[in-house]
Design brief:
By secondary structure, this protein is an alpha/beta fold. The protein contains nine helices and eleven strands. It has a single domain, classed as Vaccinia Virus protein VP39 (Rossmann fold), CATH 3.40.50.150. A seven-stranded mixed sheet has the order 6-5-4-7-8-11-10, with helices on both faces. Strands 1-9 form a two-stranded antiparallel ribbon. α6 links the parallel β7 and β8.
């Protein structure tokens, strides 16, 4: 049995992804909360793993692919005046390593394994976001790339992050859209549900509402796919079948570029 067919929300109700996300329009909640489905030590998060397609991966060896896939983010940062940047959940620090050395670079990362790599080119604090000593250090740019869906209290976290950004500063936030076309087509076989640490599920609409409600100004939203390594002939062919795990597709990820 697919364990994702037995998921339940925080209130204990059976979980149906399309219905749960559609309900956000009615309740005006910002996200659907799932209970933690695993206890994962931070230092094991970057261990070699098998992805939803059954492929073995060692993500610590995917630096070149990762940097290539965030070209749009790097172009945006390249147009900013260098200042102080914080990458929350920076992993091995590949984004920080790819931006202009003129930036004063900081990172927060719970994994000692990944953080030790970041420490070679940034000021790194090994900690969870809620425990990090960063509240008194205002930044010109904060990057929060595929972190918010892992947090139990994402709204409070984003409010705290907004208070840490200097006037006219920027934030780049990336997260899955659990109401995307592929999510609606595949339901609980949506590939991004297969990370058990994804416990706060946002839709495109709900993330827009949240960011505006807490005072961010959204400059633009991008949906990285066509300029990434995920855009292949086989990926498109896989969409012809609604069986199995959903393939990568346009709209799975959404990246918000904001100012305060």
């Amino acid at each position: 049995m697919d364990p994702h067919n037995t998921l339940k929300t925080i209130d204990g109700t059976p979980f149906n992804l399309p219905i749960a996300m559609a309900n956000l329009y009615k309740t005006m909640d910002y996200f659907v909360a799932l209970p933690p489905r695993t206890h994962q030590e931070p230092d094991t998060y970057w261990d070699p793993k098998v992805d939803p397609d059954g492929q073995s991966r060692n993500r610590l060896k995917e630096a070149q692919t990762y940097v290539s896939n965030i070209r749009e983010e790097l172009k945006f940062i390249g147009r900013l005046t260098p200042g102080k940047v914080l990458d929350i959940g920076c992993g091995p620090g590949w984004l920080l390593s790819a931006i202009d050395p003129a930036w004063d670079k900081y990172g927060v990362e719970p994994s000692r394994t990944a953080g030790s790599i970041t420490a070679t080119h940034a000021n790194i604090e090994i900690a969870n976001l809620e425990d990090a000593d960063i509240q008194s250090k205002p930044f010109d740019l904060i990057v929060m790339y595929h972190v918010v869906e892992h947090l139990q209290n994402p709204v409070d976290a984003l409010k705290a992050i907004r208070s840490m950004i200097l006037p006219k500063g920027h934030m780049i936030l990336g997260t899955p859209d659990f109401d995307s076309g592929a999510a609606r087509r595949y339901g609980t076989n949506y590939r991004l549900l297969h990370d058990p640490t994804h416990i706060s599920l946002f839709s495109n609409d709900s993330m827009h509402r949240l960011l505006r409600d807490i005072g961010f100004k959204i400059q633009k939203v991008e949906y990285p796919f066509f300029d990434t390594s995920y855009f292949t002939r086989q990926t498109l062919l896989n969409l012809l079948s609604p069986q199995g795990i959903s393939p990568p597709f346009y709209g799975n990820f959404m990246t918000f570029y904001c100012t305060v």
